[in-house]
Design brief:
alpha/beta, Rossmann fold, 2 domains, 6-stranded mixed beta sheet, 4-stranded antiparallel beta sheet
Length: about 240
């Protein structure tokens, strides 16, 4: 069953193509990583899926629902930006509760949902802490809990490991994959780091100059890179 389908999507800025006929199919419950160098179009693609940018052409499907013309609030997508996007003046509980309150959930429903999410991301006891009092990994888990609170059909992650120190990165990767498996949510993540991509993704879509030039399981790409560009991009993993 397909979770996300991006069909022939293009997007230009001042005559320069950021996305050039992108095709991408993500299975329900899959963790898809879009990897590529800076400027290849991966974040633009994420924002088009989210609805923050409108494509010049092409369609986007979540399941059997075509969402290309829907506003962000009607797409039912959870999004975690690169800086996690937490409200610095709100504590952990209030950050997670924010989207639920906007959607009109009752006080008891909000409380029950937030407590359940705190257990899921292993942050019970941190409810009253502000983001500045948390580690990078803890802030990420708060951001994930907030994104998941609205029961999204799709989760988008923009460079989720870029603000995580190397010493704790392996734990954060394990926590992120475990949470995705636990929820079963279809997830699309973008990263410029090939080592992170190959540790995170069920499959990896490699982007270059606005196109996806190869998509497959990590082992398939490592054993059979399609061209010299891909060999160069995945070189750090081969060392």
């Amino acid at each position: 069953m397909r979770g996300l389908y991006v069909q022939n999507v293009s997007k230009s800025f001042n005559g320069v193509k950021a996305l050039d006929g992108v095709e991408l199919s993500v299975e329900q419950g899959e963790f898809m990583v879009i990897m590529g160098p800076s400027g290849c179009g991966k974040t633009t693609l994420l924002l088009v899926i989210l609805g923050a940018l409108k494509p010049d052409k092409g369609l986007i499907w979540i399941g059997d629902r075509e969402i290309s013309r829907l506003p962000i609030e009607e797409r039912n997508i959870g999004y975690v930006p690169q800086d996690f996007g937490l409200f610095p003046h709100l504590n952990v509980y209030e950050n997670i509760a924010f989207g639920l309150r906007v959607k009109g959930y009752s006080k008891s429903e909000v409380d029950s949902k937030v407590k359940s999410l705190l257990r899921m991301v292993d942050l019970e006891g941190f409810e009253l802490r502000k983001p500045r009092e948390l580690s990078g990994g803890q802030r990420q888990r708060v951001a994930l809990a907030r994104a998941l609170a609205i029961n999204p059909s799709l989760l988008l992650l923009d460079e989720p490991l870029s603000n995580i120190d190397e010493a704790t990165k392996s734990d954060v990767i394990a926590n992120l994959k475990n949470l995705q498996r636990k929820t079963g949510i279809t997830t699309v993540c973008v990263t410029h780091n090939p080592e992170d991509a190959f540790k995170l993704g069920d499959r990896i879509a490699i982007m270059y100059l606005g196109k996806i030039i190869q998509c497959g399981k990590p082992k398939e790409i490592l054993e059979n890179p399609k061209n010299e560009v891909i060999k160069r991009l995945i070189a750090p993993v081969l060392i």
